[in-house]
Structures are given as structure tokens and as C-alpha cells.
Amino acid sequence: MSIGQRRRWEYWCVALRFSLLLCFVEQVSAQIRYSIPEEVKEGSVVGNVAKDLGLDVSTLLERRFRIVSGSKDALFQVNQNNGVLYVYKNIDREELCVGNVACVIDLEIIVENPLEVHYVGVEITDINDHTPSFSEKDIHIKIAENKLPGARFELQAARDLDYGINSVRTYKLNQNEHFDLELRDSGEGYKIPFLVLQKALDRELKTKHVLLLTALDGGNPPGTGTLNITVTVLDTNDNQPVCSQDVYSVTLQENADIGRIVVRVNATDTDHGSNGEVEYTLGRNLKRGVYDIFELDSLTGDIRVKGPVDFEDNEVYRLNIEASDKGQPPLTVDCRVIIKITDVNDNKPSIGVTSLSKTVSEVSKPGTVISLISVTDKDSGINGKVLAITSNDHFEIDVRQSDEDKIPFLVLKKSLDREQNHNYTLLLTAIDGGIPQRSGTLNVTIVVLDSNDNRPVFSQDTYNVRIQENVGVGTVVIRVNATDADEGSNSEVEFSLGKTLRRKVYDMFELDRLTGDIRVKGELDFEDTEVYKLDVQASDKGQPPLTVECRVIIKIIDINDNEPDIEVTSLSNLVSEDSKPGTVISLISVSDKDSGINGKVLCSLLGDVPFELKPSFQDNMYSLVTKKRLDRELVSHYDITITTTDCGQPPLSTFKILNVQISDETVRYLLLEWALPLSGLFCSTHTERVVQTSEQDLPCQSRL
């Protein structure tokens, strides 16, 4: 077995015996006790353990003299050569024995052959190597200014790692007039400092109090530690805002721009925080118009122009501004603001017609007063001075002196004629004396009233009209038209027929008095009257009325409404059979009441008879003569049909039948005559014969 193996074996055997010894042997107190101060140098001798234990120093090495227990990190070692116990590492009592009143390190020292266990205690005594300290260098305490004296505020206690007399022994507070210091025993061996309010605080006088708390230990000289205490005085709302001025008086031109700052109201509050924050509001009892013209910034106190500022509306505005802090409850003060408005020339002169009338009769004479004119200007001073009023040529301004002032009148300058101009628009102008000058204008319309100075006037002096004779009753023949240049009833025209006309005119025609329509009243007959001449009067409704007269000539147009007429003016009684050709049997005349072509008549014989018609030297006269010799034995009598036809459209016809007797010696003539209208002819065989008559029988066109 090697030496190393043998030693390990011996070590384990010793350890086993030591463990058994601990289990079965009662613990014993240290046999030897040493005392050393902390922080001694490494290598410092604690004591000669071997000597104090009575061990043979010469055998210590052989018996393996050593320390087998103690602190985790060996603070002590023994010298096997001389048995001395010495400090192996630096010893800090505060670190080694935290919280312990006594600080003792127990060591177990053994020697072998035979095995012995010895107990050694080393007491570490405290030295004043630490000063008191606070966990914070600075603390802040907030105390309301309304706290009553006697109020206590616990402070932070200082800590000192030293023990006993070297630990914190007392505290002191720097000199001040508001606070004192009070110490209370914690019951755990240290004292607790309290800050005591001795005198009432006033934040408005002093917002902060800086104090110094000093902790002292029992060293000589004593170690100290300090704590900076800042006492912040909390505000209470015990001060109301104060306006920087009792009255703010400013001037403002009336043309100030919207948004312009008029004045800034400033109020301060010596309180702190929300208690010292000031808000501004306009008073609640101002005139309604103030709120429309000015606005107030609640934070800055700026009063700005909100709406149009008009000197003429108000020259001075008096505002009450309430300045309130944000305390609970808030405190309020009133600030008075007087805003004087200065006038600028921003108003035009105003012209008004204040009396009389805006109408004038056209017969009014020059110099007639039409209206009283008033001129005003809201501006003050020279800004309101009126310098001129202008008009036109027909009217003028006549300024007349009254008891108090000069009064302008609008008067007629020269005569008027409503028919030339029925109204006049006058431009009245007034100019003030401001810079720049401003002018005001007014359009005044003067209406010229009518007088009945104009007669009605017909559109024609003479009206000529043609109308057929067969028009129905009620037919409008013509409308006469008359106008009157006057106005109103003076221009309203009524028509009437002249009073000196023939009676027949009134029977044939009637006149609408309002429209001027002339209507057919009776049945017209061209054959009775071909022309009617009417006098028509037009009268206005003026007082007195004025009348004018025109002539209406109505010519009747003929229509083919009359049948031709056959008249036998001379007739032989008998016709002898031996009468020679050309013997005149009868004289015949034809006529037609119609005129023109309607009265042109053609005459002829019907049938094959030995007679013919010979025109006479007079118009519409014929001779009925024999055309050849007669033979009674062949024909003893003849019915001779004489027809007449006019040239109207449509043509009208009549006929007559002559009965002629033929005798040998004495011939008797029997005349049978009758006349039938053309319409009757169309209902008989005679009618057919007439219709079949050739153009040679009725040569109307050739004769025309």
C-alpha cells in the first residue's frame, strides 16, 4: 500500500470515528474562546491553540493538527509547526453575522494518534466601520396647506450595519420654523423618526420646505447619514383670482376685422394646480347683441371681434368677464371691460321721402311741391355732413329755411305731359364729408296723373265696306276703332250712332257701344237701298267727355234674288191665216230688278212655231211676229211659250204662254199667260224644255 492510499484510508477512518463521536457524545462548549475585532489584517495571530490546549507542539505535525469545521470559507488557519491560530481571510462582522447581536465563530480542531477533538470559539467584535444610511437619499412629502399644527408624518429610519454602540443612536433635524422632530421606539431596538408640523403652512408664501434629517451612530467620532426631505405644500382653494386691472378700457374702430383681438383680460390666482387655473366667461346678463359681436377665449382671456361692429348701433360696450378658478368649489371674480367704438365713415347718407305724394297731375304748374325730402347719415361729425342732392331737368330741389334747419323740397320745374312721359324716375344723390367720401342715392318714381286733355281718335276718318244683301241678321259688318291717349276713364271709349241719320239706318243696323261692332239689324235689299251712310261717334268717359265722329259707308252688293218679268204691252186679237211673214202679233217687254249681270235678261220662244221674236230699238223690248204664212186648215191655234232667263249665278227664269187663234177671215186671239219661277219649271215638262235650251237660245256670255 502506497503512502497516499494509506493516508486516504486513515482520513476516512478518522472521519468515521468523528461522526460516531458526534452521534453518541453530547455537544460540549468551546474549550477555548478568543476575541478579535473585525477587519484585522490577514495573518494576525488569534492565539496559540496548541499551547492553550496543552498539546505537545513537537507532535502537531505528526498527529495532523488541523481545523475540520467552521465557516464555509476558511477564515482561520492553524500553524502545525507552532500551534498558532491566525486570521486567514478578512473578516467583516456585518457580513458574517447579519442580524446577530453576538458574532462567534465555532471551530473544531482535531489531532490524531490518538484522536482528540477540541472546540475553539472566536468572537468577532464590532468596530465602527459603517455609518448610518437611508435607503433613499431624498424623499418627498406632500402636506396640504390647511393641515393643522401637531400633524405627524413618519419618516424613513436609518440603518447602520454596525452593532451596539456603533449603530444608529439618534437623529436631528436642521433648524426651521415649521417642523420639529420626534423619535419613537420601534420595540425592536431602533428608533423611528417622525416629522411634526409646528406652524401652519401657506403655499402662497412658500410652496416647498427643504429639510435635512441627520442620523448619528455611537462611534467616536460618531458616523452620520443624511436624508434630504422636500416638503411640498399642497394647495387648497383659499384664494380667488385677481384681475390685473379693475377696469379694462379700450377703443375699437367700427370696421375692425372679424377675429381681431380687442383686449386680453388677465387674472391670476396664487393657488396651485387646478386651484390656480383660471377660466374666463362672459357675464350672463349682458345684452343679447354683445354675444353676437364679441367672443371670449376661455383659456387666454382674449376678447375677439365675432360679428360686425357698428358705431351707429352702439358707441360703447360694457362687458363683465367672470374669471373662475378650477377649485372645488370654484372661486370667481368679475373683471370689467369697457370697449369704446370709434366712428369711421362707413355709412352712406340715406335719402327718404317723408311726406306728401309721389304723384303729380300733368296740368300742375311749375313750382308745385311734390315731396319733402329728408337726408340722414348715421355717421357722426363730418362723416355725416350732407353736401349735395341732385335731380333731373323736370324736377329740382328747393331748399327752404325752417326755424331749426334747412329743409329740401322736391318741386316741379317745368310743365308735364303724361302722354309724352307717364312717369319720371329721379336719382337723388347725397354726399357726406368723410374721407373717403360716401354717397347715398335714392330712386324716386314720380307718376304723372292724367287729365282729360285728349279726344278719342278713330283709326280712319271714313270706313268703306261692302256687304251682300242676303247676309243674316246679327252679322258684323265692320268694327270701328278709336283710341284715346289719356289714361283710365279718360281713355275709355264708347261708341254711338249719330242722331241725325235716316230712320231706315237705325232699322237696318245697330252699333255695339263698347266694341264698335256694326251689325245687321234688318233684312237688306239692294233693290231697295244700295248705299247706307252712317255717322259714328266715339266719346271718352272724362269729365266732361270729349267726342269725335267718323263716317261709315256701307255699300250693298246685289245678289241674283229677283226673277225676270215678262210683260205683254200690246197684243192683236186675231191672226189671219193670210198674214204675211213679219206681221206683228204682240209687243213684249222684259225686266229684272237685279243689277248688273244679275239683271241682264235673255228672251226666247220654245218649240217649233211659225213665230219669232224681234228685238226692238229699246233695250229689253221685243216684237212677236209671224215667221211664215199660216194655214188654219193645218193648225188652227198655237200655244206660244215665251221664256226669259237672267245671267245671274245661278240664273233665274220665267215664261208666259200666248194662245193664238188662226181664222180664215176673222181671227180671234185668245191670250193665255202666266209666269212661273225657274224652280217651278224644274217640276214640269216645260222645265225640262227650258233646261234643254241650247246656248244659242241663252247667249248670256256672248251678249256680255
From TrEMBL:
<dbReference type="GO" id="GO:0005509">
    <property type="term" value="F:calcium ion binding"/>
</dbReference>
<dbReference type="Pfam" id="PF08266">
    <property type="entry name" value="Cadherin_2"/>
</dbReference>
<dbReference type="InterPro" id="IPR013164">
    <property type="entry name" value="Cadherin_N"/>
</dbReference>
<keyword id="KW-1003">Cell membrane</keyword>
<feature type="domain" description="Cadherin">
    <location>
        <begin position="359"/>
        <end position="458"/>
    </location>
</feature>
<keyword id="KW-0472">Membrane</keyword>
<keyword id="KW-0732">Signal</keyword>
<keyword id="KW-0106">Calcium</keyword>
<feature type="domain" description="Cadherin">
    <location>
        <begin position="135"/>
        <end position="243"/>
    </location>
</feature>
<comment type="function">
    <text>Potential calcium-dependent cell-adhesion protein. May be involved in the establishment and maintenance of specific neuronal connections in the brain.</text>
</comment>
<feature type="domain" description="Cadherin">
    <location>
        <begin position="244"/>
        <end position="351"/>
    </location>
</feature>
<dbReference type="InterPro" id="IPR002126">
    <property type="entry name" value="Cadherin-like_dom"/>
</dbReference>
<keyword id="KW-0130">Cell adhesion</keyword>
<feature type="domain" description="Cadherin">
    <location>
        <begin position="28"/>
        <end position="134"/>
    </location>
</feature>
<dbReference type="Pfam" id="PF00028">
    <property type="entry name" value="Cadherin"/>
</dbReference>
<dbReference type="InterPro" id="IPR050174">
    <property type="entry name" value="Protocadherin/Cadherin-CA"/>
</dbReference>
<keyword id="KW-0812">Transmembrane</keyword>
<dbReference type="InterPro" id="IPR020894">
    <property type="entry name" value="Cadherin_CS"/>
</dbReference>
<feature type="domain" description="Cadherin">
    <location>
        <begin position="459"/>
        <end position="566"/>
    </location>
</feature>
<dbReference type="InterPro" id="IPR015919">
    <property type="entry name" value="Cadherin-like_sf"/>
</dbReference>
<feature type="domain" description="Cadherin">
    <location>
        <begin position="567"/>
        <end position="679"/>
    </location>
</feature>
<dbReference type="GO" id="GO:0009653">
    <property type="term" value="P:anatomical structure morphogenesis"/>
</dbReference>
<protein>
    <submittedName>
        <fullName>Protocadherin alpha 8-like</fullName>
    </submittedName>
</protein>
<keyword id="KW-0325">Glycoprotein</keyword>
<feature type="signal peptide">
    <location>
        <begin position="1"/>
        <end position="30"/>
    </location>
</feature>
<keyword id="KW-1133">Transmembrane helix</keyword>
<keyword id="KW-0677">Repeat</keyword>
<dbReference type="GO" id="GO:0005886">
    <property type="term" value="C:plasma membrane"/>
</dbReference>
<dbReference type="GO" id="GO:0007156">
    <property type="term" value="P:homophilic cell adhesion via plasma membrane adhesion molecules"/>
</dbReference>
